[in-house]
């Protein structure tokens, strides 16, 4: 009886070790993906400076130019930067005025992380990506294609001005499990056009 119990304990310990190894491998990738979110114009932040209530600001909106103003620190470039980078930037700018400032920044709303789906879909509009969507997920949020949609002529417009590019998306191929590389992760500001 004692031997059976020890074997079962060893099996349980081995299973726990294997599971923790898989979880250990998976968690850093997820945590890294979450930590690497870069801010966009339209995102709303809460910025706090420990023991400095006058400097703590709620509902700080990242302006269309990608910046926001912060007391004593001036203009902070937020778009394209992570929360950790913003905290470091504000901390360094406050050091001449406050000894050892402790700054924390939290994303309150991800309104700047939007994609747009237009054309022959049931519910065209803009959708906040939380965390990120691929093309099929965006089409699903838009209620799917209408009967009049040209499913194999869908394009994704990315960028703006001279830097704008188009990506092709053939709905029929992707839904049959072919050419899955077309089902790209969308970026903030992408427009999915369904003719």
Report on the structure:
- The chain has 4 helices and 10 strands; from the N terminus they run αββββαβββαββαβ.
- It has 195 residues and is of the alpha+beta class.
- It folds into 2 domains: 44-109, 2-Layer Sandwich (wza like fold); 114-194, Outer membrane lipoprotein wza fold like (Roll).
- Strand 6 and strand 7 (125-128) form a beta hairpin.
- The longest helix has 34 residues, at 2-35.
- Residues 1-35 have low confidence and may be disordered.
Topology readout:
Blueprint: H1 2-35, E1 44-49, E2 57-61, E3 67-70, E4 74-77, H2 83-94, E5 103-109, E6 114-119, E7 125-128, H3 135-141, E8 154-158, E9 165-169, H4 171-175, E10 191-194
Question: Brief overview, please?
Answer:
30% of the residues lie in helices and 26% in strands. It is α+β, with helices and mostly antiparallel strands and 195 residues long.
Span from first to last CA? 71 Å
Q: Note the beta-strand portion.
A: 25-35%
Give the overall pLDDT as a whole number: 83
Counting DSSP H or I runs of 4 or more residues, the number of helices is 4
What top-tier CATH class of the largest domain fits best?
Answer: Alpha Beta
Uncertain segments: 1-35
Summarize the main sheet. Answer: 5 strands, mixed
Helix percentage: 25-40%
- Corresponding CATH superfamily of the largest domain: Outer membrane lipoprotein wza domain like
Q: Can you tell me the CATH topology of the largest domain? A: Outer membrane lipoprotein wza fold like
CATH architecture of the largest domain: Roll
